[in-house]
Each structure stands twice: as structure tokens, then as C-alpha cells.
Amino acid sequence: MPKKTPRLGQHFLRNREILEKIVKVSEITPYDKVLEIGAGMGDLTELLIENAREVIAIEIDPSLYKILKERFYRRENLSLINQDALKFPYEEIGEFKVVSNIPYYITKPIIFRLIESPNLISMTLTIQKEVAERLAAKPSTKDYSALSIIAQYYMKLEIKFYIDAKFFSPPPEVESAVIKMDRRDKPPIQVRDEKLFFRIIKSAFGKRRKMLSNSLKSVISEPREFLKNIGIDPMKRAEELTIKDFAKITNEFCKFCKG
């Protein structure tokens, strides 16, 4: 069995019972095109081939790619790609679902890269428990962050189950979770300017221990007065605000700028 490559941060999940559970919660059908990122030894790939119309498996490691080519050389509904998943042209493959044990070192960037693709239907990902809980976090909790709001703006999220480190080879130093993310038909709130909305969120959480009257100074010149005028307490901190609160700040600031 290949050893962990520190640069790639791969941990191989080979327990068939758990892999079957992942495929079940992903709700893939024989009509789906499924993308797997970090195919590794191909154990999840095997199940995806059996359950989906078409599978695209991306593996950056040349030695693992060779193993996958030899293992699946007769599978006509599988396309193997030896490439960096962050550079893959997701926009060019039509509608797809993702089922994957994501290499830990690219968890956040690959999630945002996938969310950007309008053809993404859903993601069922095995990721660090900590990141899964941040993605699904609610306001006024320790895990609530800019990552939570941005992900929930685009996706409906649910943590399906947790996986103990002992089921991976080599075992990671953290517990893992399987999270299902389904693309929303439309965001839960409407904002006049998405770029400004995300900028305000990132600014607020960039200094999360500070009050909004201080953390939003990089975006709003007089945040204290502005927030008071729109009915939001400037003494609050970012983690106390809901996605609707951030939408209100964005939309009212757009009005203010135009006025």
C-alpha cells in the first residue's frame, strides 16, 4: 500500500462498509455523471463505477494514477485524469455530482472552486470534522465563520456521519466527517451586489474579536453610524450576525452609495 506523501496529504479510506455508506448518502443514480477528486487506490472509484452512468476520477499522483489505470483498464464508463484538481475545467463537463475523499491540503480551495461551477449539482465529501462543522455552523457558535455563510449562500448542507481516524491508512491526526452539499435553486437571501456582500463578510470575520464598528472600517467609512441607522447594533461581533443581517448591511450600503 502506498505510504502517505506529505506534499499531497493523502489518507486512504479502504473500509468497504463505510465507502458503501458514502455512496448511499450521496444519492447518485445510474443517470448521473460523478466526479471523484483524489481517487487514490480506487476503492471508492469502484463503487462509483457500479452506481453511476459516468465517472471522472482525478488523481494528481503519477504512481497512483498508474495503479488506477491498471486496475480499471476495462471500465468504459470511467475517465481517469492525471491532473491538479484545482486546475481542472469543471465548467466544460456538463452537469455533475461530486463524491470524494478530498485530500486535506486542498479542502477549502477545492470546495470554493467547485461551488463556482454552475454545473455542480451536489457534493458528498469526506473532509476534516473541523471543516465540516465550520461549513454547517449556525450563528453565535464557535464554528460559525465566513466559510459558513459563503457555503450556505450557495448550498444546503448536512453532516451525514463521522469517520474515526483508524479507518484510514495512514490514520490522520484528526477525525473526519461526511458532508452532503446540495446546490440551492436560489440563494436564501437576495443581495444587490454579491462581491460587496462577500467583501463585507470577510472583513467582519477577518477581525472577528472586534466589534462591527471596527471590523467593517475597511469597507464602510463610518460603520458605527451607518449600522445604527439601519438597525444593527455596531457593538455586535461578526459571529452574532445571520446571513440576513449581512444581506441587509450590503443592500442598505448599496442604497447609501447610490444616494
Characterise the protein shown here.
- With about 260 residues, the chain is α/β, with parallel strands linked by helices.
- The strands form two sheets. It has a seven-stranded mixed sheet with strand order 4-3-2-5-6-9-7, sandwiched between helices. Strands 1-8 form a two-stranded antiparallel ribbon.
- The chain has two domains: about 10-185, Rossmann fold (3-Layer(aba) Sandwich), CATH 3.40.50.150; about 195-259, Helicase, Ruva Protein, domain 3, CATH 1.10.8.
- It has helices at about 15-25, 45-50, 60-70, 105-115, 130-135, 145-155, 195-205, 210-215, 225-230, 245-259, and strands at about 10-15, 35, 55-60, 80, 95-100, 120-130, 155-165, 170, 175-185.
- Helix 4 links the parallel strand 5 and strand 6.
- Helix 1 (about 15-25) crosses helix 2 and helix 7 (about 195-205) packs across helix 10 (about 245-259).
- The chain contains ten helices and nine strands.
- About 35% of the residues lie in helices and about 20% in strands.
Q: What descriptors fit this protein?
A:
alpha/beta, 19% strand, 10 helices, 259 residues, Rossmann fold, two-stranded antiparallel sheet, Helicase, Ruva Protein, domain 3, 7-stranded mixed beta sheet, disordered N terminus
- The side-by-side strand order for the widest beta sheet comes to 4-3-2-5-6-9-7
Q: Per CATH, what is the topology of the largest domain?
A: Rossmann fold
So what's the overall shape?
Answer: elongated
Distance from first to last alpha carbon: 64 Å
The overall average pLDDT, rounded, is 92
CATH class of the largest domain: Alpha Beta
| DSSP E strands, number | 9
